[in-house]
């Protein structure tokens, strides 16, 4: 098992082991090709997510896509953001 | 379902343990208190308040702990000159039907004779406690709390949702649950509002989360740490939802503050953020503080979810470690009660883990020690806080 979908409504899945670009995972009943190297417990788009569309985890919005995200892409700070509070990172990161 | 032969207290509540607490009234009395408790075994436990300045919150938490259903008797140890109103505490404990004795070091001849007096008191109380009436205790008389600590990216995927499933079943069976950390509900306001039993409770819940957001802003510190992003979390609301998952999906019956006893059954949110302007520093300086506050509100058992592997336990109530990360479980099996992380390796499902938690709660309720309890973990911490609560801090909370 290489990923987990927490809620049926989610448009992302969580990697449960490190994934390599080109790996095929079964995300919510559908085989998708992973587009990036993804570390354990990071998010992978389970379907295409349009810019501005909410990213759904636990069946609720955890932020919005800041660009069009293709199914199989790593979903993180580079392509989504909070609709609530800016995320604090250490200086220089 | 009958789960235990409980210890019946005068207020009608039942305990799953029958311990003596030795309670110091200021740090300066803690050495004598420690010497009094030493050597009696795990059922004589040390609690106390270190501060010398008066604080209603500390008075309330100490009173609630000394009249906790798991406590059968109390030795109060004062230095003599501290602010803590020791006589009011002694009176409240006596009122609750428990054996209580007072040692005042400055009046009882100093360290050596106070230790002797206190140890004799423990022996007498132990004897008296053998006569505490017993009564069958059913699952719906149990109060279970939950906290998370030493979290990592697995916490919100395995252990927390499994605890949520536990609460859904436990509350449906008539149990009372308490969850907390309103600072980690930031971003979940509208979702949690809709789970509230009434619009008024919904308003109170949202208010408590806004209070947390304001408090954290003033302190210059929220709950999202850079390490969270390294672990795969991207936003505050994502982290919050992971913590929030511990509360399951059942209706929320009310909001309580630390030391307030839930007025009915169901699931309650504990608002741990002090009222008014920030005064004494961070709201909860560590996980143990949170467990102790929940014990004071009557929790019999604490479900403690952890990814990185916290080992802390608690005085007075057993804590059950629900381990979110399968690697951590393999590294620290002696401390972890439940291997919730196995769902991440395809060795089981969240509902199975939820049921396993339920079964273990029943067992620990029936007297089986949890792992941290068997290892002798009895951590305790009670910092200064301010809450706008009307009831007297020395009301033992028993009437409700």
Report on the structure:
The complex is a heterodimer of chains A (93) and B (400). Chain A has strands at residues 3-4, 12-15, 24-27, 30-33, 43-45, 54-57, 60-65, 74-75, 80-81. By secondary structure, chain A is an all-beta fold. Chain A has one domain: Archaeosine Trna-guanine Transglycosylase, Chain: A, domain 4. In chain A, the strands form three sheets. Chain A has a four-stranded antiparallel β-sheet, with no helix packed on it. Chain A has a three-stranded antiparallel β-sheet with strand order 6-7-9, with no helix packed on it. In chain A, strand 1 and strand 2 form a beta hairpin. The relative contact order of chain A is 0.21. Chain B is an alpha/beta fold. Chain B has two domains: 19-131, 3-Layer(aba) Sandwich (Rossmann fold); 138-374. Helix content of chain B is 35%, strand content 18%. Chain B has a seven-stranded parallel β-sheet with strand order 10-11-9-8-12-13-14, with helices on both faces. Chain B has a four-stranded parallel β-sheet with strand order 4-3-5-6, with helices on both faces. A three-stranded antiparallel β-sheet of chain B has the order 2-1-7. In chain B, a hairpin with a 5-residue loop joins strand 1 (2-8) and strand 2. The chains are: A mainly beta (93), B alpha/beta (400). Chains A and B meet through strand 7 and strand 9 of A and helix 9 of B.
Structural class of chain A: mainly beta
Question: How many strand units of chain B?
Answer: 14
Give the integer mean of the pLDDT values of chain B: 94
CATH top level of chain A is: Mainly Beta
Total helices of chain B: the number is 13
Work out the number of β strands of chain A: 9
Strand content of chain A: 25-35%
Parts with pLDDT < 50 across at least 5 consecutive residues of chain A: none
Strand content of chain B: 15-25%
What is the radius of gyration of chain B computed over CA atoms, rounded to a whole number of angstroms? 20 Å
Low-confidence regions of chain B:
none
From the N-terminal CA to the C-terminal CA of chain B, the straight-line distance is 23 Å
The assembly state of the depicted protein chains is heterodimer
Biggest interface found? A-B, 31 and 29 residues
Total individual domains of chain B: 2
């Amino acid at each position: 098992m290489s990923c987990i979908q927490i809620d049926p409504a989610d448009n992302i899945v969580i990697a449960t082991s490190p994934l390599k670009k080109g790996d095929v995972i079964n995300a919510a009943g559908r085989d998708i090709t992973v587009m990036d190297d993804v570390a354990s417990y990071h998010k992978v788009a389970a379907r295409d997510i349009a810019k501005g569309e909410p990213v759904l985890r636990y069946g609720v919005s955890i932020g919005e896509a800041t660009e069009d995200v293709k199914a199989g892409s790593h979903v993180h700070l580079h392509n989504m953001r909070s609709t609530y509070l800016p995320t604090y990172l250490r200086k220089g990161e | 379902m009958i789960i235990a032969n409980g210890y019946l207290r005068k207020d009608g509540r039942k305990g799953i343990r029958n311990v003596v607490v030795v309670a110091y009234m200021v740090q300066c009395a803690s050495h004598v208190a420690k010497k009094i408790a030493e050597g009696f075994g795990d059922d004589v436990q040390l609690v106390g308040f270190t501060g010398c300045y008066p604080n209603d919150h500390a008075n309330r938490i100490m009173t609630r702990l000394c009249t906790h259903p798991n406590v059968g008797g109390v030795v109060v140890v004062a230095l003599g000159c501290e602010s803590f109103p020791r006589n009011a505490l002694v009176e409240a404990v006596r009122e609750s039907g428990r054996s209580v004795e007072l040692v005042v070091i400055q009046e009882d001849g100093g360290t050596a004779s106070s230790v002797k007096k206190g140890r004799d008191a423990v022996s007498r109380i132990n004897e008296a406690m053998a006569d505490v009436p017993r009564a069958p205790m059913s699952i719906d008389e149990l109060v279970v709390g939950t906290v998370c600590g030493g979290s990592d990216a697995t916490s919100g995927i395995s252990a927390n949702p499994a605890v949520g499933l536990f609460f859904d079943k436990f509350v449906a069976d008539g149990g009372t649950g308490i969850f907390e950390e309103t600072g980690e509900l930031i971003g979940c306001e509208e979702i949690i509002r809709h789970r509230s039993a009434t619009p008024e409770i919904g308003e109170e819940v949202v208010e408590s989360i806004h209070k947390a957001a304001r408090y954290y802003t003033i302190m210059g510190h929220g709950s999202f740490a850079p390490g969270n992003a390294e672990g795969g979390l991207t936003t505050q609301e994502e982290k919050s939802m992971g913590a929030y998952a511990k509360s399951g999906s059942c209706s929320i019956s009310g909001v309580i503050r630390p030391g307030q006893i839930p007025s009915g059954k169901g699931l309650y949110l504990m608002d741990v953020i002090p009222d008014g302007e920030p005064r004494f520093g961070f709201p909860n300086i560590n996980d143990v503080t949170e467990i102790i506050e929940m014990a004071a509100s009557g929790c019999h058992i604490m479900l403690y979810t952890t990814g990185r592997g916290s080992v802390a336990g608690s005085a007075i109530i057993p804590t059950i470690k629900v381990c979110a990360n399968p690697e951590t479980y393999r590294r620290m099996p002696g401390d972890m009660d439940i291997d919730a992380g196995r769902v991440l390796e395809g060795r089981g499902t969240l509902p199975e883990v939820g049921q396993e938690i339920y079964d273990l709660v029943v067992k620990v309720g029936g007297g089986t020690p949890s792992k941290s309890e068997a290892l002798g973990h009895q951590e305790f911490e009670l910092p200064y806080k301010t809450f706008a609560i009307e009831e007297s801090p020395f009301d033992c909370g028993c009437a409700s």
